[in-house]
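Checked the freezer inventory, then went back to the computational side. Two predictions to log before the end of the day. The first one is the construct we discussed on Monday; recording sequence and tokens without edits.
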Amino acid sequence: MSAVAAIVLAAGRGTRFGDEPKLLAQINGKTLVRHVAEAAVASTVDPVIVVTGYRSEEIEADLRTLPVQTVRNMLYAQGLSTSLKAGFSSVPATTRAVVVLLGDMPFVKAALIDALADEWVKRGEPPALVPTVNGRRGNPVVLSRVLQSDINDLCGDVGAGPLLRRRLDVIEWPTADPAVAQDIDTRDELAKHRL
């Protein structure tokens, strides 16, 4: 078990995508969420916790051959904050930080996850480490255990972004990897990436 775990947020409905469950849409023969989970499993972070909610049984079935833990967020309809809290509360007590991955970012690779975890350690284990590309913050982010009480106070359809914007001790980590800004929200965006 590593000092850094991974949380894959895969509970939301993805309403901008339409009727088809977004995270089960495929690119290159795999679902969006499986791309993300495989990258996390291939990295050095451990354990990998996948938070499910909407269409949880189908998502869990899609990931059943991977060594991941799943946590069902029955409150997923109340927004992203509930999934972040569910994931954060499920990591082992020995975990010092988590890499939070979004289930609709299929281009994130294990090397990026490892680089973020390594940089978090190199920078002295700050409360948060956020990748930036062309000056804009992206995902995945590394959140330290010291933020747990602040995360527990989040409400509604927000992730850690508003919390991190208020803090002066967040480390930004510039990268040239475009994956930190590439999520799939609509069918048109998916179509651009399908072979």
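The second is the one RB wanted added to the comparison set:
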Amino acid sequence: MRILYTNFHQADGGGHTTYVLSLVRALRAAHDIVVAAPAGSRLFLEASGMPGVRVVPMEFKGGLLSAWPQIRRMRALLKIERFDLVHVNGAADHRLCMLASTGLRGGRPAIVYTQHNSRSGRSLGAALRARLATDRVICVSEHTRRGLMRSPYAGCGLRTVKNGVDVDYFTPATPAQKALARERWLPPSQTGCLVVGSNAGTAAYKNWPDMLEAVAMLPGALRRRIVVLIAGEPPDEDQLRCVASLGMQDRVIFVGLLGDVRPFLAALDLGFVLSSRVETISFACREMMSMGLPVVVSNVAGLPENVEDGVDGWVVPACAPAAVSEVLREALREPEALEVMGEAARARALAEFGLPRFVAQTQAVYQEALDLPQPSRLWPIGWFALGAATFWVQDLLI
């Protein structure tokens, strides 16, 4: 099969990039794969280093005039390569592929779209993409699927395929590894603390200050027994002011962006993802659970689909630091229970989160898309009209 993967993110790309790279690694030996992504992005750089994978620099954002050369480049790529299937991963790249493939002689390739967030998908742009350039939709959580059932994508064959992680790569740390990790990340005075952390990043919607507020709510003696580690982009000035306002400067450590998060996760006793909006299933949550960590998640989007409350983690209301604070009290009161919950988290990861299951389910969706009747062509005059109309309403598309 000849597959084109696209992603619009300019820099790290977070879960979108991890998702595409997981599929490319798994399928590159059996299929002819091309990746189109912005030059300099993490996806572009990492895919460029994979044997057998071809990478094409491509920008996906901008208005009609600025995007027109990219549309022509994509159209030329589709004509030359004659892909069987294009897998798009966001509104911007989906839109460009729609415009580039419309009216292709012999018909366009099958197009599979993955919905990576919890937005409604009910814009005019979504309606155009669903009607003209979508054969199947992959939803990364049941929450996502339920949301899209009320969108123009409802008739595009919604399929739930939850993100997979490499459970052989993300394995529980040994006691020696945990000790080394704590020496690396923590000052000596804090190596014996309960270490709570997250590799979900520092974006505002991740709502990580709720964990700091939860720690700040504890009595001084308990607060001094906890340290919070956070991996991701360094906090900005507003975020640092938030930390200072909570009096948490000495209880939180920001470690920055990491190429390999495993040594960071090895230092933790308890993970957290407390997103308040625009969330799906969370690679970070699944990576932490695969490493044998119980995780505190908010009841937002697909996060609760990862955790059985009280068994392998906790589910708390969104934007409720008091509820998180109660979890911390429980963890401090019964630290031995965290080990039992961590074992349950690892068992769940082995049973449900593995890459072979994720890849097999994704390939099944590909086959469904390929088996559909070939879509009819839209003639060039319709193609130009569609392009103009789409960019006139671009604010509604993304």
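For RB: The chain has 17 helices and 13 strands. The longest strand covers residues 32-37. Let me know if you want it refolded.
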